[in-house]
Write a structure and sequence with these properties.
The complex is a heterodimer of chains A (407) and B (424). Chain A has helices at residues 19-29, 66-69, 74-89, 113-126, 133-137, 143-152, 167-180, 197-205, 244-249, 278-290, 309-323, 335-338, 344-353, and strands at residues 5-14, 17-18, 35-36, 51-52, 102-107, 158-161, 186-193, 235-243, 256-265, 300-302, 331-332, 386-392, 397-404. Chain A is of the alpha/beta class. Chain B is α/β, with parallel strands linked by helices and 424 residues long. Helices cover 31% and strands 17% of the residues of chain B. Chain B is globular, with a radius of gyration of 20 Å. The two termini of chain B are 38 Å apart. Classes of the chains: A alpha/beta (407), B alpha/beta (424). The interface between A and B is large, with 74 and 77 residues.
């Protein structure tokens, strides 16, 4: 009997608020939860993007005592709060007694980048001796995962994966593998990100962000003909992963089974862009799905499409190549609401299995002939049996996650 | 001596078929090995950036005048860390006898980096600050920032080789390289990939140099791990790359395995962001779990390539961990620290030290640390000092990486058994 990994808890924090109900509400409303970025630094390109999916003054004191919070970067706080939200959602008070049998697998694209900026300002403007130890220790990419481990007492592997848009799915895949192979009994797996103004401005200067055009409001339009960039977003989403037999033995509610996870690379991609190697990526996805019942049993795709011009086209070509002549299942694009980064796609994938994730597309889609299909819009009428989550990263990495209902 | 619970039998033996290195000793494995054997440190004055305003003035830098050819891509979009990574990967693949071909579809890259292209990021940032202070806000060219990402070195390797399988970069500070190799070992064992190109790369940068100075963790002199007067680490740069494959695959093409990648494990202290657990509890758990993974008893380990940073707390905690795993035998266990010779390579430290560990196994000797200085009497291990230690037995070796945030990684490499060395 193979060991199965299941998801038993979810903690999510984003511009939509705290927890799955807040996210479900935002996805149902189908509008990007964006707000104005502080452009006072003068780094933003004129006429460029003004919005991001930002978390405004969150009160995290339910999860983090103030004395501990002051020693944490913003991403560390988000990760700790989401992790401490996920554990009780799974019916678990703490993993401290399990110690080395509990691991953390966390993805981030940029890490605590605001502290990096502050530290560099001190070094360059005030001199190296002015550098504050706090900014250094809390600018390293793995500090959110480490702070989470300290907060919940997780002494197993503490892994921070930095693979841009593919990171969240890779992190869950790695966590599920560790549970399946018996290296850990439980894993907290997910993603965290912050979007301070300078990072937002630089993403805009790279041409990555959605922006207003003539008669077109600034918003992300995944897989749509009019798409012109992503909505940068911050947040944290953590899943609790454990063995299915152990979860059932303790009477836990099972949110999903991790049926398969896989990854590949498109070597045609540039350093900061997507490539054209959809055939090879499709072959990898097809081969992986074949080990898990094939594409035919998938009833919904929670797509990582974000509004990026080349990224969405690559995503569409991969999916079309895998499904071939068969009709594609409904393709949901939650990043239209949550923005890119922060693991909102993980939480949305779970909600999709529960039948909660409603049409997260902000307006009537316009078909892009090159893409050949539009994101699903409208209510999801029934619970979904199998949901494929996709994540294609700029730079070439790709990751997929197949979740299924376990009951 | 404590025993460990062995893991169940495994179906696949994973071996090392190629090594690559870029270190302050040179742009390849032979120059690195010669430097390591010399016992003379490469840590000293450096000029990668202006450090006149810093508290300390030594580091171990790679000589760019002897640089290898650049990898593919636009020069502005390739960081120094990318160049180190690609150069080391090319060397490792060449030794493994893997050229271009179909194998890349079933191959993956598992890399570690703590700062990626931070050096180039800093150049952009410096120009940005100048623009902020100037009358006209002309911001610097964005291409400088392109390789800024943590995942850039691993991606650059994958792009250079044309990898089709999984590509994953771990950023777990100073344990990044060790953890990446551990992930790669798992991936080959499980059949996720047939070939794993794994390791790490980092370059010197102001952020880490100033940051460790701010923590007062950097020694003003070249670091002296396990010495009585040790006063901190020395930062270095470079890359280490290892090719991992199933034994049968290497033998099938007539190649010879250099070593067996026998075991790995990772743990977290969950204790403090910048200080190790004083008893090295997390490190001991990682070593014990790696031994179990390798199906070895502590008594079978013949030497240790320690994390050995030279900071007072880390060295003590690490020796506590060794004592708790190896018991009384720890006092006779040969221990060396590659960091004493090439500095602390941060995200690539675990990778370069894994390369060094394998080279020691192949040579049947442990590379020394510099002879100068008095050993700390509180350090209960046998330090290898001054000249290489010829081993009576070189069967199994342990390499440890202990990081910021309490992340620990332990790797065990073994000499191939006679029957593993060729197809006959």
């Amino acid at each position: 009997m193979p060991i199965e990994t299941v998801v038993t808890g979810l903690g999510t924090i984003g511009p939509y608020g705290f927890g799955r109900e807040a996210l479900a509400k935002a996805l149902a409303a189908g509008k990007p939860v964006a707000s104005e970025v502080d452009r006072g630094g003068g780094w933003h390109r004129e006429g460029g993007s003004r919005l991001a999916a930002l978390i405004r003054e969150p009160d995290l004191s339910r999860w983090i005592p103030p004395a501990a919070a002051r020693r944490m970067s913003f991403p560390s706080k988000l990760a700790v709060a989401a992790g401490k939200m996920a554990l009780p959602d799974a019916g678990i008070e703490t993993v401290a007694s399990e110690g080395g049998r509990a691991g953390v697998y966390l993805a981030t694209a940029f890490g605590p980048v605001h502290n990096t900026e502050k530290l560099l300002r001190q070094i360059f403007l005030e001199g190296a001796e002015a550098a504050q130890p706090f900014y250094f220790s809390e600018c390293v990419a793995n500090t959110p995962a480490a702070q989470l481990a300290i907060a919940v007492g997780a002494r197993g592997p503490n892994v921070t994966i930095v693979q841009r848009e593919a990171g969240p799915l890779l992190a869950v895949g790695r966590g599920a593998q560790a549970v399946r192979e018996g290296r850990v009994d439980r894993a907290l797996a997910g993603a965290v990100e912050e979007i301070p103004p300078l990072l937002h401005a630089l993403l805009g200067r790279f041409g990555a962000l959605a922006q207003a055009e003539e008669k077109l409001a600034e918003q992300p339009r995944p897989l749509d003909r009019r798409r012109n960039g992503i909505l940068a977003g911050e947040g944290a989403s953590l899943l609790v992963l454990e063995r299915e037999d152990a979860a059932r033995a303790r009477g836990a509610r099972i949110l999903a089974r991790v049926r398969w996870s896989g990854a590949a690379f498109d070597a045609t991609a540039g350093v900061t862009d997507w490539g054209t190697g959809h055939d090879a990526l499709a072959a990898a996805l097809r081969a992986g799905l074949a080990t898990a019942g094939g594409a035919a049993g998938i009833s919904m795709i929670v797509s990582g499409a974000s509004g990026a011009k080349r990224g969405d086209l690559l995503e569409a070509r991969v999916l079309k190549a895998v499904w071939g002549e068969a009709p594609l299942p409904p393709v949901m694009t939650p990043k239209a609401v949550t923005g890119e980064y922060g693991g909102g796609i993980l939480a949305a994938g779970l909600l999709a299995l529960e039948g909660k994730a409603l049409a997260p597309f902000p307006e009537a889609p316009e078909l892009d002939p090159e893409i050949g299909f539009s994101p699903h819009r409208g209510a999801v009428p029934e619970k979904r049996a199998r949901v494929l989550l996709t994540g294609l990263a700029s730079g070439g990495a790709a990751a997929w996650l197949l979740l299924e209902r376990a009951s | 001596m404590p025993r460990v619970d062995r893991a169940p039998a495994r179906p696949r033996t994973v071996v090392v078929s190629g090594l690559g290195a870029v270190t302050p000793f040179g742009w390849n494995v032979p120059s690195t090995w010669n430097g390591l054997r010399s016992g003379k440190t490469s840590i000293g004055p450096f000029d990668r950036f202006d450090h006149s305003g810093y508290r300390t003035h030594v580091a171990a830098q790679v000589d760019l005048a002897r640089a290898a050819p650049r990898p593919r891509g636009k020069p502005a979009r390739i960081s120094l860390a990318d160049r180190y990574a690609v150069c080391a990967a090319r060397e490792a693949l060449s030794q493994a006898g893997l050229g271009g071909g179909d194998w890349t579809r079933r191959a993956g890259v598992y890399f570690g980096s703590s700062t990626g292209g931070m050096l180039e990021n800093e150049r952009y940032f410096e120009a940005l600050l100048a623009a902020e202070g100037g009358a006209r806000r002309r911001l610097p060219r964005m291409s400088i920032l392109a390789p800024q990402q943590y995942n850039a070195p691993g991606d650059a390797v994958a792009r250079e080789i044309g990898i089709g399988g999984p590509v994953q970069t771990v950023s777990a500070a100073c344990a990044s390289g060790g953890m990446a190799i551990g992930d790669a070992l798992r991936a080959v064992r499980s059949g996720e990939v047939e070939t794993a190109i794994t390791g790490g790369s980092d370059s010197l940068c102001r952020l880490t140099y100033a940051g460790f100075n701010a923590l007062r963790s950097v020694d003003e002199r070249p670091c002296r791990p396990f010495r009585k007067d040790r006063a901190g680490l020395s930062i270095g740069e470079g890359a280490g790359v290892i090719v991992l494959e199933p034994l049968e695959r290497v033998l099938a093409r007539g190649a010879r395995p250099l070593a067996v990648a026998a075991g790995e494990a990772a743990t977290c202290d969950a204790y403090h962001m910048t200080a190790p657990h004083p008893l090295g509890a997390g490190a001991a758990e990682a070593i014990g779990a790696a031994l179990a993974d390798a199906q070895l008893d502590p008594g079978e380990i013949d030497f240790v390539n320690a994390h050995g940073t030279g900071t007072p707390l880390n060295d003590l905690a690490e020796c506590e961990a060794l004592a708790s795993v190896f018991g009384e035998r720890a006092r006779e266990l040969p221990v060396t620290s590659t960091k004493s010779l090439v500095g602390h390579l941060l995200g690539s430290a675990g990778a370069v030290e894994a390369v060094a560990t394998i080279l020691c196994l192949v040579a049947g000797e442990v590379h020394p640390m510099p002879a100068e200085g008095e050993s700390d009497p509180a350090i209960g291990v046998q330090l290898v000092l001054g000249s290489p230690l010829k081993l009576k037995r070189a069967r199994h070796a342990l390499s440890t990486s202990l990081a910021f945030g309490g992340a620990n990684a332990a790797l065990i490499f073994s000499r191939p058994r006679p029957e593993d060395r060729d197809a006959d």
